[in-house]
Batch of 2 targets.
Target 1
Amino acid sequence: MKKIREAPISRWYETNPLLYFNEKISLFEHYRHLVFEENEGKIRLTGRLRVIDQNGDEHGNFLVEIVFPDDYPYEFPKVYEKEGKIPVDSARHMNSDGSFALCFKYDEIFHIKKGLKVIYLIETLIIPFLSRQLFFDQFGEWVSGDRLFGDEGIVDFYQKELNTKDLKIISNILETVLTTHKIAPNAPCFCKSGKKFKKCHRELFEHIKMKVPEKDMREDLKVIRKYFE
Ligand SMILES: [Zn+2]
C-alpha cells in the first residue's frame, strides 16, 4: 500500500523568501527597532510606534504587534496593541479579537490588490489609527466624526467612493456595474446626462468595479435600495 505523506504547510515567508527579505530591508531605515520574530510558524513584527507631529513632537507611543497571515500579502495582517492602552471596544474601532479595525472591508481588499507592504501598512494605516486613538483619549471624540458601521457604513462608503450623496445615482451605477461589464466609451452615459460615457461616469464605474467584489456589491445594492424604496 502506498503511504500518503501529508504535504507540509508552506507559509508566505517560505514560498516567497524574497518578499520577507524586502520587507525587512524596507524597515531598516526608519523602523529598525521593530523586531521580526518567527514563532509556531507565524511571523510577528513587534515594537514601539511613536505618534509624532509635523514639529517632531511626540504625542504618544504604543507597543504594537503585527501578525502576518499565512498567505500574506494576499490576506490582511492583524495588528494588536500590547499594553492595554486602547480598550477592546467596537466604539474604539477595535475588533472583538482585540485587533485594530484599521479600515473598511473593501479598503482591505483594495490595499491587497494594490500590493500590501509592511511599511505602507505602518505609515498609512497603523500610525494614523494610533493618532486618532490619542485624539479620542484627549477629547472624547473622533477627529472627523465617527466612522459609520453596518448599513449606514455601507451607504457612507458608496457616497464617498462615488462622490455623490444621491442614492438613486449610486444604485444606478451599481446596477450598471452588475449587469453591464463593458460600455463603449462613446456610448451615452447610463446616468442620462447626455454626455458620452468616457466623459461622464466611466472613471467611477471602473473604480468601484475594481474595488468591490461582485457578490458583495449585490448585497450592498439591496441595502442601498432599502433607503429610498
Ligand atoms: Zn454619467
Target 2
Amino acid sequence: MISNELQRQTPPNKPPVLSGSPDMSTPISIPPTPTYIIGHKNPDADAICSAIAYAALKEAKGELGYAPARCGNSNARIDTILTRFHQPLPIYLSDVTPRVRDVMVRDVISVCQTATCAEALELIDEHDVRILPVLSEDHRVIGSVSIFQLGSFFVPHMREPREMRKVFSSLAHISRALKARTIHMERADHAEELFVRVGAMDVKSFGKVSAGEGVPLEKTIIIVGDRRDIQIRSIELGVRALVVTGNLPIDEEIVQAAKRAGVSVMVSPLDSATTAWVIRSATTLERLVDRKFASLSADIRLGDLRKKLATSTVAAYMVVNDEGKLLGILSKTDVLKPIKTRLVLVDHNEMSQAVSGADQVTIAEIIDHHRLGSLNTQQPILFINEPVGSTCTIIADLFRREGLVPSPDIAGIMMSGIISDTLHLNSPTTTEKDGVMLNWLSKIASVNSRELANEIFSSGSVILANPPDKVIRSDFKIYEEDGVRFAVSQIEELGFGNFWQHSRDLSKALQNLRNEEGLLFACVLITDINTQNSLLLVKGEEEFINRISYPSVQKDEIFDMPGIVSRKKQLIPYIGGILKEMHTYGVMPAPGSASGPFDKPAA
Ligand SMILES: [Mn+2]
C-alpha cells in the first residue's frame, strides 16, 4: 500500500473508529470504484446489452466488483429491451478522467475544533499521523493542527513565561482532562482564557506575584495541595478556580466559602506538577488551529493539478465538497499513485468512441466486433475481437464455453443485442455463429426471436420521437483516419416515410453537427428494416461528396444505397476507399488548415 506521507490510510483491519467520541470525526465516505463495463458513446442496443450481459457473466464466474455502465442516453429501443427483460439502465458515466477523488486519502483522521490538545495528541500518537484536519461541528474544514504546532505550544518559552501558563478551555474540559471530582462549578462550559499557578509560595506573597505578572485573579486557576491558608486566600481574592491535588480532602467550611464567593473547586487525582501539565493540555484546538489551509474540489482533473503542485509548497490539500466539508486529503505523492479506475470496453475499441478520459485510465479488457482502431494499452490485456454480428454473440459464446447458463432475462438481453445489430440476422455482418447463439439463447429465455425482433423494431421511430439534432446524434460515431475526422450516424426505420417528412431539418442538423465537431463530412445512413435498403444523407467537402458513386436522389445530399444496411461492414469500407482516393489525388484538405468547418474546434 502506498501511504500518504502525512496521513496514512488506516489499515483495513483497523476501522477509523472515532464516532464514539463527540469531539472526533471521520470524513464523509465515498464507496470505492468498481470496474465499469462500458459500451461506446451514443450507445446502441448492443452496447448496452453487451455491458449488462458481460457483467452477468463476470458475476456467474464469481468475479466481483464489475458494474455495467454507459456513456450516453438511452433511446426508445433500449428502453423497450430493458423493460422487457427487467434490467435497470446501466450507470451513466460522462467522463472517467482521473480526478482528485480517485487518488486522495479518504480515511482521514480528523478532529473537531472543540477537542483538546490532549485528545489531538492522542489521535496523532495512535494513528501515527503528522497533521490533523480540524473540523467544525458540522464537518466543515477550518484548518489543521500539526504535531509541530502542538509541540511548540508545550515547549517552554523562556522569554514569555506567561505563555507557558496560559490555557484556553472551559472548566468542564479541564475537569474531564484531569478526571477530577468536581466540588462546585460556576459557568462550567464557558470557554475562556485562563492562567495556571501552583500555590507553592507563602500565603503573604501570594497576591503580589499574580499582580506583578499582570494576570487578573478572575483568570487564575490555583493548583494547591492541602494548604488551608492558600485555599482560603485564593477564595478571598476571587480566583476563577481552585484545583486541589492528590485526591486530598477539603474542609466543608472552605467548600461553603467557595460557593458564596462563586469560586469553582475540583479535586484532581494527580500531583501538582502533573495536574498543571494536564490542565494546559486541556486547551481546546480553536486557539491553536492553523487557519491557513489549501483546499481543492474532489472533481479537479489530476492533469490540471500536476503543474500547480509542481510549484506549490503546500504539503497537503484538504479535499472538500461544495459546503466545505472534508472528503479527503491530498498530498503531492498521492498524485503519483496509479489510477484505480478500470474499464472493460465492450462493442468498441476506438478511443474516439470511448467514454471521455478512457485514455487516462486502465483498460482491463476489450470485447468487440468492430475494426481495430489505434488503441494502445500499458499492460497486456484480454482482447477479444471477433468478426461476428454483435458483441452479445461473443458474450453468449463465452457463457457457453464456460459451461454457464445465463438467466432467462440475461439471455433475452443478449438476444436483443444480436437482433438489433444484425437486423434479426439479415445484415451482411451476420455470421453463422450469430444464428447459433440466437437459437441457444432463445431456448433459455423461452422467447421467440421473430416476435422479439418485431417488438424491438416497432419500438418507436427515432425520427418521430426526437428533435433533428438528437436524431442525428442518437447513434453516431466519430472516426479518425489519417488525421481526418468524420461522423457516420445510422437510423433504422420502418419505411422511409418519416425520413422524407423531416429530411430538410435533418439536413440542417447534420450541417450543424459537422461545424460543431469540425468534420470533413458527416452523414446519416437511414435504413429501412422492412426492405433492407438505405438512404445516405451527407454534408461535407465537395471533393468527398462528388466521389460518392451511388445514385443521387436529391442533389449532392441524399443518395440511394440499395442493399446497404451495415455501417461497419459496408459503408465504412466504402468511405475508406473514397478517402484513399482523395489522398492519392492530393485533394484532401490538410488537418488543421484554416479552411473553415474542417478544423477541429478549440477545446
Ligand atoms: Mn455492436
